[in-house]
Amino acid sequence: MSVVREPAVAGRFYPADPDELRATIRGFLRPDPSQGSPPKAIIAPHAGYVYSGPIAGSAYSALRGLRGRIRRVILFGPAHYVRLRGMALPSADVFQTPLGPVPIDRAAVERVLALPYVIVNDSAHAREHSLEVHVPFLQEVLGDFQVVPLAVGEVTSAEVSAVIELLWGGEETLLVVSSDLSHFHDYETAVRVDTETSHLIESLRFEDLTGERCCGFRPISGMLEAARHRGLRVRMLDLRNSGDTAGPRDRVVGYGAFVLEDVKTELPPDYRQILLDVANTSIAKALEEGHEIPIEPKDYPGRLQMLQASFVTLHIEGRLRGCMGSLEPTEPLVVNVARNAYAAAFRDPRFGRLSSDELPRLEIHLSLLSCPAELQVASEADLLAQMRPGIDGLTLIEGGRRETLLPSVWKSVVDAREFLIHLKRKTGLAANYWSDTIRVERYTAESIGPDL
Known about the structure:
Helix content is 33%, strand content 24%.
């Protein structure tokens, strides 16, 4: 006979009646807000449905269209009731909800149990709501699937990331991280703190997440570390708190809905043109007004509001006229492009300020950067072996200096060694310099505009 993990919070966190539960969940779902590739992972809250259900619904709406394609869900949630070192799986074969049984993927369970910090602990699951509240959403949206429910205790981001890598799979596997955001601030404080936390998550800055910002900071951190390695980007879909849904505003809990998407797919042509127009307008308006003109990101498509770094390169008649950019995704892409276009035209220390008569001859090229990932290198030969000609941009960090070369530079060099020599010289280092303290980050870039 199968061992069943029975519902622990049905009738308290969500309706126990199946028909009422289905109707409740359907009321939270909305048209698919996704504007990119199908999500590989989502982050969603786990409070009672009356409080966090609408925000969770925003995340699960992004999975519409994946019914029948996703066959396995790896579910991570913080352990609230048991002090736990590591991560815990149940001994059960089935996860039961009012909507029916969900099989636990025992083959996947056996794989992760090979890791020393993953154990079987039924006590960690007996009362835990952070996992359970997601399963009815998954049943309604996905239909038939298997689940791997992991209660997360005291672990490092690297340990969570290792589990994710082990179970990554293909398009049949979805990753779900369960977490609420800030707890028990007044409404205005919660909005400020949760907005900061959302920016950290969107920027993949997992090192800065703490338990004060989100109760599931450990599984979120592991997910974001894996996202860096895999080249995923985070998009925020919804950010509210209990004061916006069903509670008072003097003591609220924050909730956020996020999707993690593959960004290898280039922007559609109309979005690429919007960014070129934004760069051109930023420069033209600054010439008219004499100063930088800020833009409002909400006036642009949601994909262009995502946090992403860019470089803007200017040429006149084939000659470089300015190049400025950002390496870290700290603001919406459309804002970053406008800001860097202005900086390239007026603040590049190698050139004077752009003049009005130069504007008609200006060629604008954009490089949209992926999130940087640090390379683990043992020697210069190791670094050269890892470099991907024509693909990689590299940032070299040494002795307080930090410089980068965009992937477009590959067009003007012979091989990886010459690329690295140019980068060293830009950083102020000799061509034959190497030390054990050198750090190197890698990124890719989508190129928009005329060839450099």
